[in-house]
Amino acid sequence: MFLQKEMSKKANVTFFCMDVTCRYWPYLNKLAEGLPELLPLTDMRPFLSVMHAKAHTAKCEVRWGGRSQDRAGNTVGEEVEQVNSFLSRAALVTKYMTKAGRVNMLTQQAMGWNRRKRDNLHQALAHRYLKITDRAKVEAVSLRSIKEQHNLDQETTQQWVCDVRQWALTDRVYTPGCTEDLRAEIENLTVTLLRKKQDLYRQHDSNQTRQRKRKTMAQLKIKLRDLVLQYNTTMEGDQIDEELACSLTDGYILPWETHEDDFGDLTEDATHGLNSVLSRRWHYLKSQKKQAVNAYSSIASKELVFFHIQEDIEDWEDNGFTSPESEEEET
Fold it and tell me: Which residue has the higher pLDDT, 189 or 329?
């Protein structure tokens, strides 16, 4: 909040990008109700960066994602991560320096980054403008083809967009102990355990660190098992397989994920449109799979012919005959 307030004094900031915008912005609005001096900060338009929006829920991505904001363009929102990536190159050099030398070196690197970015700003903006313009043309052609394929007009597509945004604004309130609350906790624990299992050997090199992570995973599995037992006791049908869920078996799908055919709070027209887009995507992937199968089949047939020729050559040599290839080599 301090940085936002100071930057708003020095420049006319329109957008506010942060990896926890979905948590920070409601907090800021709540404080602005009691502190009028913070009201100018709420005039900015908050959004999440591309990477963090993908990591959040679907509603959070639609509501706070930078790609869903008007006049935000094709903004990535990872400028701070780019600076950190650049400064990380000085880690091997500065870790043997004194504290004062390290601070001085990092300061010089940051000032050099700002100077190069300011000098190359005109080229970067021109390149980004051309890139976004080309991307807009491609998306316009894709939207036009979808409209022609499903016989849609502009008002229908706009209504779909409004329905999806309205769906993202509606937050379901779960009462303690309800079925939806248990489902959300089970999904959260399952995703957390799968991510920790995947990163166990990829991000940790020492056995001591892995041992601590395994201990944490064991505690989470106990908690997950308790939640699964509570869910199976509450629900009569669609029981969760306790062993498959708690052992993180690959390919196991929770019961409510296999039987849900609706898309939350979408209207009938929006659901029909989403089904149409998914069906079009499915047919495209099916055609791509067919092309890949044909390509591999042709390669396999050529390899089979080559193997038959090789066997014939070996049979000729075993019977005392010479193949044309061997005669050419002797001559």
Answer: 189
Per-residue model confidence as pLDDT tens digits over 160-188: 888 888 877 876 554 555 677 777 788 77
3-state helix, strand, coil in the chain (%, to 5): 75, 0, 25
Around 155, how many Cα atoms within 13 Å sit in the side-chain half-sphere? Answer: 0
- Residue of 56, 65, 64 lying closest to 25 (CA atoms): 64
Dihedral sign for Cα atoms in the order 24, 30, 31, 36: positive
Provide the greatest CA pair distance for the chain.
Answer: 101
Please name every residue paired with 15 in a beta bridge, in sequence order, or none if there are none.
45
Break the chain into its structural domains and give their ranges.
1-77, 179-264, 270-330
Which residue blocks in 171-263 are alpha helix, DSSP H?
179-198, 207-234, 242-246, 255-259
Rounded Cα–Cα distance for residues 276 and 269 (Å) = 11
Beta-carbon contacts of 140 under 8 Å, excluding residues fewer than 6 positions away, are none
- Indicate left, alpha or beta for 13 from its phi (over 0: left) and psi (-120 to 50: alpha): beta
Tell me the pLDDT tens digit for each residue of 225-238.
888 888 888 877 77
| 78-88 exposure pattern, b = at least 16 Cβ within 10 A, e = fewer | beeeeeeeeee
> Distance between CA 274 and CA 270 in Å, rounded?
6
- Output the pTM of the full model: 0.49
Spatial CA neighbour of 266 closest among 153, 180, 166: 166
Cβ proximity of 254 and 186 under 8 Å: yes
Do residues 86 and 109 make contact, with C-beta atoms less than 8 angstroms apart?
A: yes
Q: Which long-range contacts (C-beta less than 8 Å, at least 24 apart) are formed by 28-31?
A: 28/1
DSSP string over 126-148: HHHHHHHHHHHHHHHHHHHHHHH
Give the Å distances, CA to CA, from 286 to 272, 279, 283: 21, 10, 5
Let me know: does 161 contact 168? Beta carbons within 8 Å: no
